[in-house]
From TrEMBL:
Pfam families per the UniProt record, alphabetical: RRN3 (PF05327)
Homology family: Belongs to the RRN3 family.
One of the GO biological process terms: transcription initiation at RNA polymerase I promoter
Residues in the signal sequence: none
GO molecular function: RNA polymerase I core binding; RNA polymerase I general transcription initiation factor activity
Organism of provenance: Peronospora destructor
One GO CC term, this protein: nucleus
Protein name listed in UniProt: Uncharacterized protein
Top-level division of the source organism's lineage: Eukaryota
Length: 164
C-alpha cells in the first residue's frame, strides 16, 4: 500500500515554490491592480481575475497570487464591494481539481489568513468547503463519467425491478 501511495503522490504535478522576490513582485502587482480599479482602470484587475480562472490553470502564477494575497488583505478589506469579483473567484476555487497539492496548501493558507482577519469571511469559506467536499452531482461530471453514472443507475433500476 505504501508503494502505491508514494507512486500516486509522485505522479501529482508539483510546481516549485515561488521565491520571496516573486511573491513581493506579485504583491506589488496585486496592490497596484486593486488601487487602479478604484481609480477606474480595471485592466490589471481583470488580468488578475483571468489568471485565477484560466483553464488550464497557470499553477505557478496562481501559487504566487495565493502567496501574495495574505499581504493584500487589509487593502481588500477597505473596499470589499469593489473587489467582490476577486473574492467571488477566490471562493469558487476547486480544491479537488487542482493537480498540485502545494497550490492547495498556498490557497488554504490564504483562506486562513482571510478568515482570521475578518469573521465576515467565515460563511463564504464554509460554503466553499461544502462545495468542495460534497459528492459531485451528475450534471457536474464530464460527459464520459456522466454516461457511466447513467448506465450504472439504469442497471440498478433494472436490478430492483427484477428482485421483487
Amino acid at each position: 500500500m505504501a508503494g502505491s501511495e508514494a507512486s500516486f503522490v509522485s505522479a501529482l504535478l508539483v510546481t516549485p515554490s515561488p521565491t520571496e522576490e516573486e511573491i513581493v513582485s506579485m504583491h506589488r502587482f496585486i496592490e497596484n491592480a486593486l488601487d487602479l480599479l478604484l481609480k477606474g482602470n480595471a485592466k490589471s484587475y481583470h488580468y488578475l481575475i483571468q489568471q485565477l480562472t484560466l483553464i488550464p490553470a497557470p499553477i505557478a502564477t496562481r501559487r504566487k497570487i495565493f502567496r501574495a494575497l495574505p499581504r493584500c488583505i487589509s487593502t481588500m478589506a477597505r473596499e470589499p464591494r469593489a473587489y467582490r469579483t476577486l473574492l467571488d473567484v477566490l471562493f469558487k476555487f476547486d480544491l479537488l481539481a487542482s493537480g498540485d497539492p502545494q497550490e492547495v496548501d498556498d490557497y488554504t493558507s490564504f483562506i486562513v489568513h482571510l478568515v482570521s482577519s475578518n469573521t465576515v469571511y467565515v460563511v463564504p469559506t464554509l460554503h466553499m468547503l461544502v462545495r468542495n467536499m460534497r459528492r459531485p452531482q451528475v450534471k457536474e461530471l464530464s460527459p464520459e463519467l456522466r454516461a457511466l453514472a447513467e448506465d450504472r443507475a439504469k442497471q440498478a433500476t433494472r436490478g430492483q425491478k427484477n428482485c421483487c
